[in-house]
Amino acid sequence: MTDSLLLNAASWIVPLVIAIVFHEVSHGWVANMLGDPTARQRGRLTFNPIKHVDPVGTVILPMILALSGAPIFGWAKPVPVVASRLRNPRYHMMLVALAGPGMNLLLAVVAALAIAVLAAFNPTGELWQFISQNLLNFMAINVFLAVFNLIPMPPFDGGHVVEGLLPRSLAVHYRKLGRYGFLLLIILLLVVPKMFPSANVVAKLIDPPVNWNIRALLPNSVG
Q1: Any catalytic annotation for residue 126?
Q2: How far apart, in whole angstroms, are the C-alpha atoms of residue 28 and residue 81?
């Protein structure tokens, strides 16, 4: 494995780890503010990545994707949230769910501002190129995670929002889809595109809003 491959993988994995840690902590922050201290009591309101790392979703899968040139995504250990401890479980759970994508969009804006500052000063050298690449990747990853997690299906954050909007009688049945979440994810991302290329979920549903947001954040840098 060459040094360039390792550097390329690092320029994706490091930003990804930061993005998903902030994503998870934001869920815990909002839950704590709305009455559920579970994440705080279990020591999950920390930016120490070790507390949040899922060996497969945070390390192994992103490394494989980065080295293969595939789109990078991953996940951390979910921050524990007990809906019944929230002051208004039905609606506050929607706010807790939206906190993760909201944080990712905020981080994308911060990255875009940092990129603009670097562009204004235009520093040279390999170190600055590496920093610039990390910032670009960090912005792209955060936009992707924000959009991806808003997929309206349990256990994604968007699924919790849909559940809160549905009538209670339907929400109970909708919530049960969460137990098949990982299987549905694999089917949507890997099986469906292979069998029906025109039904590629990422290309059809995720890429357009991701690209629109990136163009909005970097209108002069993205063609």
Answers
A1: no
A2: 7
Tell me: the pLDDT tens digits for 149-161? Answer: 998 888 889 999 9
- Residue 104: CA atoms inside 13 Å, Cβ hemisphere, count? 31
pTM of the model: 0.86
DSSP-assigned letters across all residues of the chain: --HHHHHHHHHHHHHHHHHHHHHHHHHHHHHHHTT--HHHHTT-SS--GGGT--IIIIIIHHHHHHHHTPPP----PPPP--GGGSSSHHHHHHHHHHHHHHHHHHHHHHHHHHHHHHHHH---SHHHHHHHHHHHHHHHHHHHHHHHTT-SSTTSHHHHHHHHHS-HHHHHHHHGGGGGHHHHHHIIIIIHHHH-GGG-HIIIIIHHHHHHHHHHHSTTT--
Q: Which of 17, 19, 24, 159 is catalytic?
A: 24
